[in-house]
Amino acid sequence: MTVATGSVTSKDAAADWALARLPAEHRPPPARARAICLGDEDERWDDLLPYVGAHADHVVAAIERGTTGPNVTPRGYR
After folding, report:
1. Cα(24)–Cα(2) distance, rounded to whole angstroms?
2. C-alpha span between 66 and 70 (Å, rounded)
3. Contact criterion met (CB below 8 Å) for 32 and 41
4. What's the burial of 58, exposed, middle or buried (CB within 10 Å: 0-12/13-18/19+)?
5. What does pTM read for this prediction?
6. Any long-range contacts for 70-75 (C-beta under 8 Å, 24+ apart)?
7. How far apart, in Å, are the Cα atoms of 65 and each of 4, 20, 41, 59?
8. Phi, psi dihedrals of residue 73, rounded to the nearest 5°
9. Other Cβ atoms within 10 Å of 19 Cβ, number
10. Kindly report the CA angle at 25 between 24 and 28, in degrees rounded to 5?
11. For the CA atoms of the chain, what is the radius of gyration?
């Protein structure tokens, strides 16, 4: 969220922001992480393993796009 908006927020708010923008197929891992962080679910990932690699690739690509755009300076976001 910080790279995209320049804002710093809580993990919960950042997760909501990201989940609203993710394609449906990439939502399960961060949705689970948010639920674990909030204490709504126990930590387990075995059922989401098929989603994790694709989600990680999606996030890395988004970060690379976000950190090479016109609003990024050598010192960070402007």
Report:
1. 22
2. 9
3. yes
4. middle
5. 0.69
6. 72/3
7. 10, 19, 32, 10
8. -105, 170
9. 13
10. 85
11. 14
Q: What are phi and psi of 72, to 5 degrees?
A: -110, 125
| Whether 59 contacts 53, CB under 8 Å | no
Beta bridge partners of 72: 77
Is the separation of the CB atoms in 37 and 12 below 8 Å? yes
Secondary structure letter of residue 10 according to DSSP: -
B/e letters for 20-35, b = 16+ CB within 10 Å, e = fewer, are: eebeeebbbbbbbbbe
Q: For residue 71, how many other CB atoms are within 10 A of its CB? A: 11
pLDDT in tens, 44-59: 999 999 899 999 998 8
Domain ranges of the chain: 2-77
Model confidence over 8-37: pLDDT tens digits? 888 888 889 889 988 899 999 999 999 999
